[in-house]
Amino acid sequence: MVPLKRRKTLPSDAGNTVSDSSRHKVPNKFSQVVLFLLERKMGASRRFFLSQLGRNKGFQVEDVFSESVTHVISENNCGTEVRTWLESQGRGQSLRVHLLDVSWYTESMRAGHPVEITHRHKLQEQQISEAEVALFSVSSYACQRRTTLDNHNSNLTILTGVFGVGAKTADRWIREGIYNLEQLRDSGQTLNRAQKAGLEHYDDLNEPVTKAEADAIGEIVQKAVNSVLTGSQVALTGGFRRGKLTGHDVDFLITHPEEGKEVGLMPKVVAWLESQGFLLYQKTTRNSYLESKDGPARPASNMDRFERCFSIFKLTKGKEQESTQPEEQNDLKTKDVLRPHMQADTDQQLCELSKNYQMEAASHKIWRAVRVDLVVSPISQFAFAVLGWTGSKLFERELRRWAGHEKNMSLSSHALFDNTQNKYLRATSEEEIFAYLGLEYIPPSERNA
Ligand code: UTP
Ligand code: MN
């Protein structure tokens, strides 16, 4: 440790501006490794402390970033953020610089030498277009998922591609040495219900949903809703409402023209769908929005608080079968697939046959799994919910930013609040909401920001 007195004499921003080789108490033992700790999110004092720790262990830790730096260490930054910072230093394209998590640094400290760099140490970067880079440089929240330059990050992308698996879980699995689906299957990891469904239907869920499939599901949802409460309405939202031809899921908003009638609707709809065999998975979250209690402030996460059902539908392939219930369409039976020449005499043959059977069954599969989001809204919030759920995500973000910055209003998928007049602005259509916001109406097909 540096004596307190000496530390005090250092300028407070020593981290960024002072090259202070005189502080190297121990000669640099690892000449191939030139470290630089990024102050961003780490903070000046922690950076200073960690830098000194490294120097005392014989590491070359630079105060100022330069051409000679080989390893950039950061904490709580994603690869894209660090890459953007590197770009601002004129080294954006440099592949020679390792972008590493602070865990590599602390482990090296513990080991007394630079430890081997493994996947989990590397910051993962998203491949982003130039336009996105431009956007990123003005707003820090464009940083989303991580993907590395060297293909190792495909691990995380596979794993986070599983329904029910977030970046945090994927990160943990990678730290435990699980890099792909096969390893996940073999690992004996305890999976929750969503992850099990995600793994089971992995291929289907990663295949884009078509507009025809979205419409077929729309008919089923409409039927479900009408069966449990006449007069209920269903609106297709999300990307398909914006005219997209494919999507990663299908989003529906359900309401009833009489306020209050929508209460208790979701469990009934879900029960109907389940009884008809349309659901492979579902998880419903309750409505937690209460205007009188929550007020106009939006939750920080941008998540709305409608009653919502995350589900996986079992959708029959082929138009003519749309209205038929899945159970009635008898999935291929062994007898249909096992041909006369497929007769097993030995265990090995049996095993082969079973494999063949599975392959044939997959190719004949007459249904596919589709992600579907069902959301129930009271009619009084319906216009806001439709606007909020139509997207695109960027369009929504900009709309809310506009409302706040330009109009001193708070917009959510539940309501619009005028902070100047201190009152809610009621609306029954999207057009009215645009008008309140002083914006020209933009139809869904032109909200593909
Ligand atoms: P999606 O994630 O389904 O996006 O959310 P999308 O535009 O339909 O695109 P794909 O084709 O499925 O990938 C639809 C909209 O719903 C809102 C978002 O604003 C998004 O634009 N949304 C989504 C919420 O308001 N809350 C949520 O929890 C999720
Ligand atoms: Mn969607």
Rg, Cα atoms, Å? 28 Å
Quick one: overall form?
globular
Overall structural class, as computed from helix and strand content, comes to alpha/beta
Approximately how much beta-strand content do the residues carry?
Answer: 5-15%
Q: Kindly state the percentage of residues in helix.
A: 25-40%
- The name of the CATH architecture of the largest domain is 2-Layer Sandwich
Question: Which stretches of 5+ consecutive residues score pLDDT under 50?
Answer: 1-25, 127-153, 320-344
Number of spatially distinct domains: 4
**Quick check: average pLDDT?**
78
Biggest sheet layout: 5 strands, mixed
Number of strands: 14
Spatial strand order of the main sheet: 6-8-11-10-9
For this structure, the CATH topology of the largest domain is Beta Polymerase, domain 2
Bound molecules: uridine 5'-triphosphate, manganese (II) ion
What name goes with the CATH superfamily of the largest domain? Beta Polymerase, domain 2
CATH class value of the largest domain: Alpha Beta
Number of helices: 20
Cα separation of the termini? 52 Å
Summarize the structure.
This protein is α/β, with parallel strands linked by helices and 449 residues long. The chain has four domains: 14-138, Rossmann fold (3-Layer(aba) Sandwich), CATH 3.40.50.10190; 159-205, DNA polymerase, domain 1 (Orthogonal Bundle), CATH 1.10.150; 209-290 and 302-317 and 371-446, Beta Polymerase, domain 2 (2-Layer Sandwich), CATH 3.30.460.10; 319-338 and 346-365, no CATH class.
Secondary structure: elements and pairs:
Blueprint: H1 4-8, H2 14-17, E1 34-37, H3 44-56, E2 60-62, E3 71-74, H4 79-88, E4 98-101, H5 102-111, H6 130-138, H7 154-160, H8 167-175, H9 181-187, H10 193-200, H11 202-205, E5 209-210, H12 211-228, E6 233-236, H13 238-241, E7 246-247, E8 250-255, H14 265-275, E9 279-285, H15 291-294, E10 307-316, H16 334-337, H17 347-364, E11 367-376, H18 382-390, H19 393-407, E12 409-411, E13 416-418, E14 423-424, H20 430-436
Parallel strand pairs: 1-2, 1-3, 3-4, 8-11
Antiparallel strand pairs: 5-7, 6-8, 9-10, 10-11, 12-13, 13-14
Bound molecules: uridine 5'-triphosphate and manganese (II) ion.
